[in-house]
Design goal:
heterotrimer, A alpha/beta (262), B mainly alpha (342), C alpha/beta (319), B: mainly alpha, ABC transporter involved in vitamin B12 uptake, BtuC, 75% helix, C: 319 residues, alpha/beta, Rossmann fold, 2 domains, 12 helices
Chain lengths: 262, 342, 319
């Protein structure tokens, strides 16, 4: 479980996030939405430790993470970033294996257990066939999946995703977010508890498919928090995105679409 | 032979070969038999009475062997540092002199050369000491200039490095053109290969290069992870700032020591890791030690050429490395255009 | 595997280093015994130009010179038959060219060749660095360093010293006497002149708008003065400096000496340079080639240069 309390963070003197309070439960996917500049990426950065916090506490399972070393923190929190500037000459397996970094010594030696975890991650993301291919030879969607597998190999309870579907084709968006959902809600027969997932997403229309809770971030503050029904409301969204919006519900499937009201 | 061991065996063999060639070739060719005789008679205590073997022993133990060891160390230091910087700056065109070591050392050396030092042990150590000081000082200035808060971002380092290097080179040129007596001496020093005599330079560089290279060898895995950028590397648990600091420190010490005693030998630090990357991939856990082996072998071979091709003239080694490095690099590059490299 | 290889490499390095640094006695260069024995003197101690105390066990018979000036001095004091090698630039006297070449054209000498010649004395000059002297010392060789003389008196002292350490004191004494006499002749003649023509000594004219010349403190500057002329380059600072063509036109030398004649510069080329035709020396056709070696190498040929300068600057003294 990830708990964020009174978090204030920013760049230089400028505060981007103000007094954020948020709890991400295990076995729950929380979607983080909001207009550009609202602080979604900043929040991911602050929680993962890349951005030092100005104020506030971040705890994982009641452990304060601010005081941990990078290595210790990486064993608790993993991040799936956007696919961007991937060094081309890594193989898929090598990239996924990097997820074990927080558990390796300085020389980077793998134990059999490490190898097994990497295999599992590859299996879970259906990458076994592509394992030996070079990253440069993969499509954008496949590359994003590799980064997801890497985070899986990192074997953390808390997983953060930073707009992982932004530039993917529709089928890859759906595919990826389905997997993410399954991470939090493992199928019957799998022992482990689900991950605690916080996913910053840009596209509002696929949310209901995979997220259990939605948090709306506007100008560094939480404007709304709750289930998809509670947050994806016309008044709330129109105000946040500063454009009149229309929420269309499909009564059959329960899915909704958000469109500008023209 | 396993795939991972093959490059090590190849380069190791090449290095041993280069070592033998370096020790055998010169104004007086020493055959393996003569080498064996010189080594065994020395171990037995004292050279044989024949005058000719006395000269051979002097040439072997006082000239060729220390020179070979020195160049082996320097080659390993330059190529190892080059590989580390290419990993740190995520740029295959980085070389060990990127953040000011060469120009700082050059300035220090030339400043020392403008002063007539007394002929004492301290006076003779003036130029290498000044070069070492100049090198480390330049890097300090560069890191200070590039600092942003608590970290030293790599783009800033490169920019600051270029600025400081340009300035140091300009001042060096000014000094050289104003003190015509030392112009030749400074030029020879800057081209690399001047103090290659005796065991003193070897003893001088040994602690720095051994320590520095040992540290660099441990940075292979962190550098691999850092290829994904500082942010992702840190999210994967790498203490990015510490790795950067340690890398710069180790690389600076090794190259500063190397340059202080042997002058500026360019190209080795840039080309060796780059070529090896094209041949055997960019995993820094392998690339770092392979670069050290390759750099040592290359420098030994080029020095042998520099010493023998127009004997008794000795061409400064830096010229030969540039001459040999360029076409070879172009050839490998053309051959691997289809491959990815990073 | 990688660890094993690294250990192997380190082990090899260390063992090789140990072999080199082992405590075996220093191998000293042995002097050869030659067919005709020259009588040897007592062990000699002198202080050289670097302040080093140099000890010679006997009269050296295998001398190596590292500089053209040293070569000329050695031959002049009569030690030519005792020479074994010289640097690449030593080309005077003619006999020196037959000696073994020990390198030096790119600032580096071949210590291997030097060692294999088993010299009992190596003579260096100011163009050699202290590192080179040290390196030769470390090889167990006896090195004598000649600092540049700042006057002709200094030069006489050097000639006498070199004569002494090579066992040619008689020859060097006679040489010094004759040099002094020749200098005296020029000084006497020059005493009566009433005017001191401006002389421009060109070292390098590849950039005619800023030719290189010799400044104050150089031999040529001193000798031009002694020969009754005035070195135009004396107004500059630094021993080797550029003078702008404008300044040269203002100075208007009566005589131009081409120290770069050996590189192909001729009087016709100089006369054709833009703007130079207004210079007196060009108008009167007093542009002369000059052997720069005689003034850039601090040796007995400085006196040759003085005589030549006197004839060129004050030809009226030599009817």
């Amino acid at each position: 479980m990830l708990k964020i309390e009174h978090l204030t963070a920013g760049y230089g003197d400028k505060k981007v996030l103000e007094d954020i309070n948020l709890t991400i439960e295990d076995g729950c996917v929380t979607a983080l939405i909001g207009p550009n500049g609202s602080g979604k990426t900043t929040l991911i950065r602050a929680v993962s430790g890349v951005l030092p916090v100005m104020q506030g506490a971040i705890t994982v399972d009641d452990r304060q993470v601010n005081t941990l070393t990078e290595q210790e923190r990486a064993r608790l929190i993993s991040v799936v970033p956007q696919v961007r500037n991937i060094p081309p000459a890594f193989s898929v397996r090598e990239v996924v294996a990097l997820g074990r970094t927080p558990y390796l010594n300085w020389l980077g030696q793998f134990s059999t257990q490490d190898d097994q975890i990497v295999e599992n991650a590859l299996e879970q993301t259906d990458l076994m066939e592509l394992a030996e291919r070079l990253m440069a030879d993969l499509s954008g969607g496949e590359q994003q999946r590799v980064l997801l597998a890497r985070a899986l190999a990192q074997d953390t309870r808390v997983m953060l995703l930073d707009e992982p579907t932004s530039h993917l084709d529709l089928q890859f968006q759906v595919n990826l977010m389905e997997r993410v959902h399954r991470l939090a809600h493992p199928m019957e027969g799998i022992e482990r508890d689900g991950h605690a997932v916080l996913a910053a997403v840009h596209d509002l229309n696929l949310l209901r498919m995979f997220s259990d809770r939605v948090v709306l971030l506007v100008k560094g503050r939480i404007e709304a928090e709750g289930t998809a029904d509670e947050v994806l409301r016309e008044e709330i969204l129109s105000k946040a995105y500063r454009i009149p919006l229309h929420v269309i519900r499909d009564s059959e499937t329960g899915k909704s679409a958000i469109l500008p009201r023209l | 032979m396993s795939r991972t061991a093959r490059p090590f065996v190849i380069l190791g063999f090449l290095l041993v070969l280069a070592l033998f060639v370096s020790v055998m070739a010169g104004s007086m060719f020493l055959s393996p038999a003569e080498l064996w005789q010189a080594f065994t008679s020395r171990a037995g205590g004292g050279a044989n009475g024949v005058e000719q073997s006395g000269v051979a022993a002097t040439i072997l133990f006082k000239l060729r062997l220390p020179r070979a060891i020195l160049l082996l160390l320097v080659g390993a230091a330059l190529a190892g540092s080059g590989a580390a910087y290419q990993g740190l700056f995520r740029n295959p065109l980085a070389d060990p002199f990127l953040i000011g070591v060469a120009s700082g050392a050059g300035l220090g050396a030339v400043v020392a050369m403008t002063i007539q030092w007394p002929y004492t042990a301290a006076g003779l150590a003036a130029v290498p000491l000044a070069a070492f000081a100049g090198a480390t000082l330049a890097v300090l200035v560069v890191t200070r200039l590039a600092r942003v808060g608590n970290s030293v971002p790599t783009t800033n380092l490169i920019l600051a490095g270029v600025a400081v290097s340009s300035f140091a080179s300009a001042v060096t040129s000014l000094l050289m053109i104003n003190s015509t007596g030392e112009l030749r001496r400074a030029m020879v020093w800057l081209l690399g290969g001047s103090a290659l005599s005796g065991w003193n330079p070897v003893l001088g560089v040994l602690p720095y290069i051994l320590a520095g290279c040992a540290v660099l060898l441990l940075l292979g895995h962190p550098l691999n992870v850092m290829q994904f950028g500082d942010e992702q590397a840190q999210q994967l648990g790498i203490p990015v700032r510490r790795v950067r600091r340690v890398t710069i420190l180790a690389a600076t010490l090794t190259t500063a020591a190397a340059v202080a005693f042997v002058g500026v030998i360019g190209f080795v630090g840039l080309v060796v890791p780059h070529i090896l990357r094209l041949l055997w991939g960019g995993d820094y856990r392998r690339l770092l030690p392979l670069s050290m082996l390759g750099g040592a072998a290359l420098l030994l071979l080029t020095d042998t050429v520099a010493r023998t091709v127009i004997a008794p003239q000795e061409i400064p080694v830096g010229i030969i490395t540039a001459l040999l490095g360029a076409p070879f690099f172009l050839w490998v590059l053309r051959r691997s255009k289809s491959q990815n490299y990073w | 595997m990688k660890k094993i290889l690294s250990m192997f490499m380190l082990g090899m390095i260390f063992s090789l280093a140990a072999a080199g640094c082992s405590a075996a006695p220093q191998v000293a260069a042995q002097p050869t015994v030659r067919a005709t024995e020259v009588p040897t003197a007592e062990p000699l101690e002198v202080t050289d130009g670097l302040g080093r105390v140099v000890t010679l066990a006997g009269t050296p018979q295998q001398i190596i010179s590292l500089a053209p000036s040293a070569t000329e001095i050695l031959y002049a004091v009569g030690a030519g038959a005792q020479m074994a090698g010289r640097d690449s630039f030593s080309n005077y006297p003619e006999e020196a060219k037959a000696l073994a070449d020990v390198g030096g054209s790119m600032g580096n000498y071949s210590y291997e060749v030097i060692t294999s010649l088993t010299p009992d004395l190596v003579v260096a000059a100011e163009i050699n660095t202290t590192e080179q002297v040290k390196a030769l010392e470390d090889l167990g060789l006896t090195v004598y360093y000649i600092a540049n003389p700042s006057s002709l008196e200094d030069l006489y002292g050097i000639l006498e010293t070199i004569g002494m350490i090579t066992g040619n004191s008689d020859t060097s004494a006679a040489l010094v006497e004759s040099l002094k006499a020749r200098v005296e002749v020029v000084v006497e003649k020059t005493r009566i002149v009433s005017f001191s023509p401006a002389v421009f000594y060109e070292l390098d004219g590849s950039e005619p708008s800023r030719p290189w010349t010799a400044g104050p403190g150089t031999f040529i500057d001193m000798l031009i003065g002694m020969a009754g002329g005035r070195n135009v380059g004396g107004v500059l600072s630094g021993s080797w400096a550029q003078m702008s063509a404008e300044e040269l036109l203002v100075q208007n030398p009566k005589i131009i000496l081409l120290g770069d004649a050996a590189y192909g510069t001729t009087a016709e080329q100089v006369a054709a340079r833009a703007g130079w035709n207004t210079i007196d020396a060009v108008k009167e056709g007093r542009i002369y080639a000059f052997n720069d070696d005689t003034v850039s190498r601090p040796g007995p040929r400085l006196v040759d240069a003085l005589e030549e300068l006197s004839k060129l600057i004050h030809p009226e003294l030599y009817p």
